Amino acid sequence: MIWKLYKYRVKRLVMDKGTFFWLIIFPIVLGTFFWMAFSNITEKSESLDKIDVAIVDDGTYENAVAFDEFIKNVSGKQGNLNTEKLPEDKAEKALDEGEAEGIIYVSDEISLKFKENGLNQTILKSMVDSYIHNENVIMDIIANSPEKAQDVMESLFADVAYTKEVNMNADGNMDVYVQYYFALFAMTCMLGAHYGVINTEEIRAGQRDIAVRRCISPTKRILIVFTDFLAALTVQMLIFVMVFFYLNLFLGIDFGNKYGYILLSGLLSSFVGVAYGYMLGVIVKAKFSIKESIVTSTILSMNFLAGLMVTNMKNLVENNAPVINRINPAAVISDSFYALSVFGDMGMYLRCSITLVAMGTIFGIISVLILRRDKID
Length: 377
Fold this sequence. Notes:
mainly alpha; elongated
């Protein structure tokens, strides 16, 4: 009985071609536009490997003990820089040909030269500026407590090296524009709310003729609600999988290699989206078309705040009204993908997952409580 109800409901939702294809096509088209807009920028963006730097010595380098210690600590296996001492003409050539991303000139004063500005150049400048600012401290440490030099270096340059260190240890795409794809995943899953609204329309007495017939059938209503929800979740998860693999395999966008966790995030996010649709479907007393409009507008608003349209919007919200990011399902969904594909932070991923389960459960409980009060006239 359950299998038949589930199977027929899946067919019913898939056969609603307008909704099914719109929920697939819209994210795919939007994702394609993102890819077209950002791919050229991404190709030119900085590599997140070590920064290649040429050092030009005018003959005073051997006397620059503190700076030499600084270079040793920020280079090598644990550092962020690949450094090479070169004559000025060769350093200039390396910079012009892209073999070096910056030149450090060592003389009475330390100076930098770049061919273009970018993330790596910003990190390098921050590190050198930090060295210059702390040069006296470093020299005192080297003179009085050389054994503490490395620890002091790590402490002084931890902030400027942090971004690089996180990027180098992450498994996924570190392109700043990847946040748009995470917000796109959030929108894709939340749009499953449309299936929630359709299901409530076809189970609530007085909404449609089919709803009346289903309500008076001998099958227990709770069983119908359960199989309807499971069918909607299945179809929405199918849509997420299609969108994800289109972006990942066809367009080649890197989301890391934690596919199992990514699919679990998609499932939990789809659960929230469908449950949200159920809740709106039973709370809003209006025509089906109005409910659909409310679903679309609220979801787009959530995703706007999660950064789908404006790059720094989520950070802006975090700085001014962080509670919104905690209760906005789209922001939590986006964060769950960030945790996997950018930070590699399973603790953050677990917190997001628990939050999504809690949100979906609350939406579901509200829906069931209202549905239980429905009566057939």
